[in-house]
Please model this.
Amino acid sequence: MKLGTLKNGTRDGTLIVVSRDLRRAVHARSIVPTMQEAIENWAQVEPALRALYAALNAGRALEAFDFDPVAAAAPLPRAYQWCDGSAFLNHGRLMEKAFGISPVPDFETVPLMYQGASDDFLGPRDDVPLPSEAHGIDFEGEFAIMVDDVPMGCTAEQAAGHIKLLLQVNDVSLRAFTPIEMKKGFGFLQAKPSSSFAPVAVTPDELGGAWKEGRVHLPLRVCWNGTWFGHPNGGEMNFSFHQLIAHAAATRRLGAGTVIGSGTVSNADSSVGSACIAERRALEMITHGKPVSSFMRFGDTVHMEVLDADGHSVFGAIDQKVVSATPCAGETQTP
Amino acid sequence: MKLGTLKNGTRDGTLIVVSRDLRRAVHARSIVPTMQEAIENWAQVEPALRALYAALNAGRALEAFDFDPVAAAAPLPRAYQWCDGSAFLNHGRLMEKAFGISPVPDFETVPLMYQGASDDFLGPRDDVPLPSEAHGIDFEGEFAIMVDDVPMGCTAEQAAGHIKLLLQVNDVSLRAFTPIEMKKGFGFLQAKPSSSFAPVAVTPDELGGAWKEGRVHLPLRVCWNGTWFGHPNGGEMNFSFHQLIAHAAATRRLGAGTVIGSGTVSNADSSVGSACIAERRALEMITHGKPVSSFMRFGDTVHMEVLDADGHSVFGAIDQKVVSATPCAGETQTP
Model:
């Protein structure tokens, strides 16, 4: 099943069911009005949502309409929690090797994870407003999951049943702040502006055999300014999403609608490219002795999409442009 | 004006207006049903809420009832964003001196702040369930503010007008994880379980002259197991809440209902005691060469309260007991 959220002038938008081919959609409001309420009441609403999805795919849904990703918000436009892992160890290893960073303790046995901002997720075609090109603007292609209520102390085995939806993320990052904030030990704040999400969240069954052992075994295709940048595969994730959930829930429960990210997708085979510029720069550093690629400029675009084995888009595409943020003076910029 | 939230079996509870003396309350549902909706529509609802507050204080509010803090949730039971500063530099200086930690870069000029979990705030009399005494269970007495929508790039000067409510927090911390997570650079995750809040949030005018230059100029009184622990004053905050907001909003807008904390209240005069055990241990280390105090045990209680110049409680009291978390088996623990 594929679910999305249409912008409607409210902060939470309105929940829609989207057809498997991403062409048609239908309002879910007769079942549940928003994604947050859907995940809070998943057991109750899932059967009716699935019935509507089946009708939509069969061309039998009343009041169906063409799905327009430009009108889509993030599937969950704001969340009560967003924790982002760094579960592809190849990425961390490259960063260490290229820039001489000392290895993170327990890197291979304890997942790295930061608490991120979740009050303002961007839609798949929204511009990304940022204050300065000097901040080292980067994209990060990631997978993510959404859970229902997870109790404290949930094990990795128990976690599997709490994963209700899979998502695809552009975790926008400002690299000028990253080393500074890491050195302070308090984690990322200015380094991590609002994240963006692909048009639809999908139930795990939608991936068939490509969802396996808590990982998305599909390549994430990234283009920067219309040119291929990478297509690393999510199957190489060193920690599964089950393990990431258990890590996050070790000392607290996780509220329904918590979103947990994989960290930038990264593969040992460098011929598949990267899902973020920082990693390409690390590879350049290792190969050429210095980074060659610049970070993003205002006006640059990024495209991220996941195709299944038959070449069909799973989550729809992220297609975004980075733009200069409106100055604060006058304070006209409100959500 | 004082506002609170009563538990009612839903995740967001129901908004109430509480009398200045904290004895009486009245439902605000005819104006706005929840705190989140109130802060999103502050300009529209504030006048009616203030009128109801005036009527309640004058004994003229229809359907008023006795206010019971045991029935209170956190004023905002879950938030889309919680950023916690470390704005009392004395605390950081003591930790550095006692434990030989290298100074954080730009400590005195750039606020330290981490992104915290906000999906599950605890009420003022709720037990604090935690998995293990071995994790170094600590309390942290703090002040906090709640803002309406803050645009990206908001300056400290502009920030003042966005502060709608002041709050009092127990930022529960697990000290066994703190140095490990700081060293990794990704910030606090397992080290920071759910935070707890005093019964009411208050508008800044409620403090009179004690709210000045973006700081609460009142002592925060802390008792551990019924014994005085400290009463450091919020006026010694090195960065104002205005500066903390500007720091958080540097690269992104902040959604209405974002809560920003001061970090543990700490004063240069050690005779006023501390607002967290870690700091007392640091003082013991400096004085005696080793920490003497243990961290909290299951069954321990903490009391935190702020009295105004006339001895009246401003936010009501936090009175909590730390307890062993229900094991996950069977997964019966849901919110």
About this structure: DSSP finds seven helices and 20 strands in chain B.
